[in-house]
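ARCHIVE CARD
CATEGORY: sequence design from structure
SOURCE FIELD: tokenized fold
FIELD CONTENT:
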């Protein structure tokens, strides 16, 4: 088992290894990692990303199909398991896919898939402590499940490997509609939180060596999901829930999406806007993406076909900024419904570590996270807010730059040490 300091020092090496292993062809994000004076050719970007997706894709098998009939049962009940091999995991670590019962946005039974990753060696007394990982954006199509990818979602397997090395089991939900049949409720705080919560009892049924004690952690879309976990746990009061870590969470989806649609916004945001428009179908069966997508935006989505986030971005990044949606999009009732569902209302259970950056072009702290943290603090929540400012840490950088900080915080939760809420702004430089 590596120490936190060793893992923090190794993070840069893991990133380099990921690039070497997974970038033939290169991943789309890296085309924009170091912008040059030469514009990216849209046709090249699309060809590159389609090839990369095909290279990483695992075919959908009957494992992901719901039992017919589904029958009665509780959310979190395990339905099916399947061993997984050939993942880029530490030597001796094991992986098991799970299919379990969940709850749809309409609170009806659905099936959800995910994966359980178990460290090398014998478990400690009481079982492997559990991290319930809520992933960031992968797309809105069925093929976009991390458990159907050879790299579990590119940058996220680096995080997962570091947790396995520290002796944590990782339970990673796909979220419903990714892997399983049905529409994925993209950026729906409540449903994504349910999927995360119910993955834990399902995983414990599948892998008997897991401890009942768990911490939730997520980045971006997952950062919103774990905020929902903290809210839902205030009602369910699971004594084994020890807290959550929200990294660059898409809190206050209205501000996030509105900002992405403004002229002058990062052109990569067009893909996220298209995914948001399509994911709303899970919230309201009568809603259609063309109700809010512009003719130009809808044409690109149709040209793209059924693919995941990197391909989505490759097909939309050259759209004129501010033209993805129709002018009246914010008045759509389904849009208003999801914005209300995504607000943080509180109260929350357990401690919450919040990590954000003012230099994050996708989810900047000043316009999205600060206000919600203030609201939680006003409700006397146990919040530690780590807010980077003016040092160039971007959306994905918030995850890479804070590995050691997060792991110390998580270790303290499993060790039963006191928390250190600050309910203010703290901007570390390392």
């Amino acid at each position: 088992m590596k120490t936190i300091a060793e893992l923090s020092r190794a993070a840069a090496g893991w990133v380099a290894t990921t690039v070497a292993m997974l970038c033939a062809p290169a991943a789309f994000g890296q085309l924009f990692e170091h912008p040059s004076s030469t514009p990216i050719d849209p046709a090249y970007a699309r060809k590159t990303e389609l090839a990369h997706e095909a290279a990483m894709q695992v075919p959908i098998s009957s494992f992901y199909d719901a039992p017919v009939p589904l029958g009665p049962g509780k959310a979190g009940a395990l339905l099916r398991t399947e061993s997984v091999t050939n993942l880029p995991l530490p030597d001796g670590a094991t992986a098991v896919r799970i299919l379990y019962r969940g709850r749809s946005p309409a609170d009806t039974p659905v099936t959800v898939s995910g994966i359980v990753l178990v460290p090398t060696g014998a478990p400690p007394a009481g079982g492997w402590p559990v991290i319930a990982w809520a992933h960031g954006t992968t797309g809105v199509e069925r093929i976009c499940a991390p458990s159907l990818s050879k790299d579990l979602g590119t940058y996220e397997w680096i995080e997962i490997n570091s947790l396995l090395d520290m002796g944590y089991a990782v339970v990673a939900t796909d979220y419903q509609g990714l892997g399983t049949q049905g529409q994925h409720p993209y950026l729906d705080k409540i449903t994504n939180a349910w999927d995360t919560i119910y993955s834990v009892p399902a995983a414990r049924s599948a892998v008997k060596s897991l401890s009942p004690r768990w911490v939730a952690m997520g980045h971006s879309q997952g950062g919103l999901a774990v905020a929902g976990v903290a809210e839902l746990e205030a009602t369910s009061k699971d004594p084994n829930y020890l807290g959550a870590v929200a990294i660059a969470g898409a809190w206050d989806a209205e501000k996030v999406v509105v900002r992405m649609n403004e002229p002058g916004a990062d052109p990569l945001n067009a893909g996220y806007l298209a995914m948001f428009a399509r994911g709303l179908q899970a919230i309201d069966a009568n809603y259609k993406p063309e109700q809010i997508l512009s003719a130009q935006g809808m044409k690109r989505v149709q040209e793209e076909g059924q693919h995941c986030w990197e391909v989505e971005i490759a097909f939309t990044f050259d759209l004129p900024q501010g033209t993805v949606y129709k002018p009246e999009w914010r008045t759509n009732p389904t849009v208003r419904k999801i914005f209300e569902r995504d607000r943080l209302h509180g109260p929350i259970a357990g401690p919450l570590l919040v990590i954000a950056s003012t230099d994050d072009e996708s989810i900047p702290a000043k316009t999205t996270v600060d206000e919600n943290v203030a609201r939680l603090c006003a409700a006397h929540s146990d919040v530690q807010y780590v807010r980077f400012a003016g040092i160039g840490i971007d959306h994905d950088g918030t995850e890479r730059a804070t590995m050691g900080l997060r792991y110390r915080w998580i270790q303290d939760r499993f060790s039963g040490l006191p928390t250190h809420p600050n309910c203010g702004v703290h901007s570390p430089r390392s």
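CARD ANNOTATION: Strands lie at 78-84, 94-103, 109-118, 128-134, 169-173, 210-219, 241-247, 352-357, 383-388. The chain has a mean pLDDT of 88.
SHELF: design records, drawer C
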